[in-house]
Amino acid sequence: MDMGKRDGTCIPIEEEVTIPRFSDDRTVARSYLRRGCGSWLVILSLSTLMLSGFPVRGETVQHSMLQAIAANMVEVPGGTYMMGVRPGDDKKQGHWVKVEPFLIGRYEVTQREYEAVIGKNPSFFKSDPSLPVEQVSWADAQEFIKELNASVSEEVYRLPAEAEWEYICLAASKNEYGFSKAEDQLAQYAWYEANSQGNTHLVGQLKPNPWGLYDIHGNVWEWVQDWHGDFPAGAATTPEGQTKVQFRILRGGGYDSPDGNCRSHNRRSYSPVNARAKSVGFRLAATIPAKVIFREAVIDYPLLGEMANENGFNSLNGMEQRALISMIDRYAFFVAEAKYYRTESPATSLAYSQRADSVKKEIQIRFGHVLNR
Q1: pTM > 0.85
Q2: Are 265 and 274 in contact (CB under 8 A)?
Q3: Is the separation of the CB atoms in 114 and 283 below 8 Å?
Q4: 85 within domain boundaries
Q5: CA-atom Rg of the chain in angstroms
Q6: Domain tally for the chain?
Q7: Using an 8 Å Cβ cutoff, are 82 and 94 in contact?
Q8: Domain span holding position 195
Q9: CATH number of residue 168's parent domain
Q10: What tens digit of pLDDT does each residue of 149-176 get?
Q11: Do the domain assignments include residue 126?
Q12: In this predicted model, what pLDDT tens digit does every residue of 233-259 receive, in sequence order?
């Protein structure tokens, strides 16, 4: 169904919109959409972290996919720990690391997500799109991140630093696996050689670690940002490892790994460009953006002030705030379009109304605790 005029008054709006190929510049894209449907923009006029749904360079990434990726980012509290030490070893072998708060993917990147962003699925095991993507090099992961960041208009997504990865694996514990000292419990948390039956499995099927993260151990090895090399001497804040050597680092073990390779301190190195194995994937990390000032945001998005209370909004982190703004803005757009087409095209108006109801339900489910009663 045609959801809008094609005479320059309004462009068609579906769950996904392709910006013309000349629109590499986000300002041009905003201008194009403003000419199209002026009352409410689906992309934010603020420096949007996420959920714009409008890609560049003629690519199309569904808004719902961007929203799902963002919704599965877990906030990790900052802290200090001894990195690179196997329990029972001489602590001199490790070093103290301070980790700032950041965001990490609840799951490994799936084939569905990878194909939505890159347009192809390189994986060996393809029985279900919720399997982790594999056969991706470190460079492939970087390309995915580059395209994902282009779709949300900000350089926010990245691979975790090695220090961040080990930190989330330990999850404030001092055990080799982050959940227990007992290796016989590993099968409850990880797909590895003892229980995987020789293949990867759908993400999120086993128990999460204490911080709610799935498949930290096993399923697929996970690329981290760092080059492989010796740990730096002395204390550091989220160290970046070696400046540049031959290999990048993998962590966590895979479906075909023995239990020892799944330990929190275990590391493996591969060529960042040519190494593509069916046991290698990755997990997203993200920098927590600065908080949005409520009273400034409601100037651009007055419905935010009507739907959310200031204290509740201020209790959210920067990513959650932007998610709420984007969802409210999207709801307002659908409401406005439903009203616009009420007389001219009742069927189109109904379609927009149904979308508005769907988005409103999403807002209530996810952010009900900060909404006005």
Answers
A1: no
A2: no
A3: no
A4: yes
A5: 22
A6: 1
A7: yes
A8: 71-286
A9: 3.90.1580.10
A10: 888 767 789 999 998 999 999 887 777 7
A11: yes
A12: 555 555 555 455 678 999 999 999 999
